[in-house]
Every structure is written in C-alpha cells, then in structure tokens.
C-alpha cells in the first residue's frame, strides 16, 4: 500500500466540490488518513510548486493557491498515487482529462483544475512532509 498527497485547490473549495472529491476517493476504495481545510502560506506554496519556479505561470499559480482555502489530504491504498491521478484526469481539463474524471467533469481551465495529486513516490514523500510536517 502507498500514500499520496491530495489537494482540493481553492477553485474546488469555492465551488463546493470537496464532498465530490472525497466521495470519489472513497468510492474508489482509497482511504483518507489525514484531512484538513486550511489557508496556505506563500512559502509552502512556492515549495510545493518549486519544479515550476521558472515557468511563466508560476507567480499566478502561487497567488491562486494562497488566496483561498484548500483541503489537504493524505490518501492511502494500493497504487494510491496512480489511482488518484486516474480519478483526477490529465492536467488540462478540456484537452487531456477524460469525461468521468474530476477535471474532465468539472474543469475548464488549466490553472483552475480543482485538484492536485502527487506524481511519484518521491513527490508523495516530499509533499506529505511539506503539508503534514507534524507526521
Ligand atoms: P498538479 O501538480 O496540481 O497535480 P499536474 O501534475 O497535473 O498538476 P503540472 O504540470 O505539475 O500538472 O502543473 C502543476 C499545476 O500548475 C497544474 O495543476 C495547474 O494548476 C498549473 N499549471 C500547469 N500548466 C499551466 C499553464 N500553462 N497555465 C497555468 N497554470 C498551469
């Protein structure tokens, strides 16, 4: 069994889609092992998206993620990292995410794509430590 860091981003929280995200995680058979509604420090946001620091959208992405509440969760299960990314769908909600996925069903714009899920075991470990430093 594996752990992944899931975020419902501010667009998902504002639109009232937290229940929908959690419901799909649970229906898939994955388990919540931590769940927290919070606002994000600039420092945590910049560290979370450090790999995109040089991208033109970095500033606006950090701004977006820090301006509203997010839900941070640790999700566990067999192949949890891939399983959640399947539930989320591709990064671009129109061009990449299939209908039936969270982004495919509810998203229109790349930046406002509702959720985040770790993309590898290394990212999951790093992100879980960043978002839940208390363990
Ligand atoms: P996440 O890391 O949030 O799960 P991802 O792994 O599907 O998303 P990445 O390529 O790592 O996608 O991009 C991280 C996030 O940055 C995306 O989820 C999206 O919110 C934002 N993003 C990516 N590309 C763009 C872009 N061209 N314009 C604006 N925002 C973008």
From TrEMBL:
Q: Which GO terms describe its molecular function?
A: nucleoside diphosphate kinase activity
Please give the Gene3D superfamilies that the UniProt record associates with this protein. Answer: Nucleoside diphosphate kinase-like domain
Q: What is this protein called?
A: Nucleoside diphosphate kinase
The entry describes its oligomerization and partners as:
Homotetramer.
The chemistry this enzyme catalyses reads:
a ribonucleoside 5'-diphosphate + ATP = a ribonucleoside 5'-triphosphate + ADP; a 2'-deoxyribonucleoside 5'-diphosphate + ATP = a 2'-deoxyribonucleoside 5'-triphosphate + ADP
Q: Does the keyword Iron apply?
A: no
Q: Which UniProt keywords apply?
A: ATP-binding, Cytoplasm, Kinase, Magnesium, Metal-binding, Nucleotide metabolism, Nucleotide-binding, Phosphoprotein, Transferase
Which EC number(s) does UniProt give?
Answer: 2.7.4.6
Pfam families noted in UniProt: NDK
What is this protein's function per UniProt? Major role in the synthesis of nucleoside triphosphates other than ATP. The ATP gamma phosphate is transferred to the NDP beta phosphate via a ping-pong mechanism, using a phosphorylated active-site intermediate.
Q: Which PANTHER family match?
A: NUCLEOSIDE DIPHOSPHATE KINASE
Concerning InterPro entries, the annotation shows: NDK-like_dom (IPR034907), NDK-like_dom_sf (IPR036850), Nucleoside_diP_kinase (IPR001564), Nucleoside_diP_kinase_AS (IPR023005)
State the source organism's domain of life.
Bacteria
């Amino acid at each position: 069994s594996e752990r992944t860091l899931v975020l419902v981003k501010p667009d998902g929280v504002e639109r009232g889609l937290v229940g929908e995200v959690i419901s799909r995680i649970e229906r898939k058979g994955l388990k919540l092992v931590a769940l927290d509604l919070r606002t994000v420090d600039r420092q945590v946001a910049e560290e979370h998206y450090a790999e995109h620091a040089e991208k033109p959208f970095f500033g606006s992405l950090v701004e977006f993620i820090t301006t509203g509440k997010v839900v941070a969760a640790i999700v566990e299960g067999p192949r949890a990292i891939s399983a959640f990314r399947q539930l989320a769908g591709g990064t671009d909600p129109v061009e990449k995410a299939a209908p039936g996925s969270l982004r495919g069903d509810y998203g229109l714009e790349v930046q406002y794509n509702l959720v985040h899920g770790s993309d590898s075991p290394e990212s999951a470990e790093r992100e879980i430590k960043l978002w839940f430093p208390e363990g």
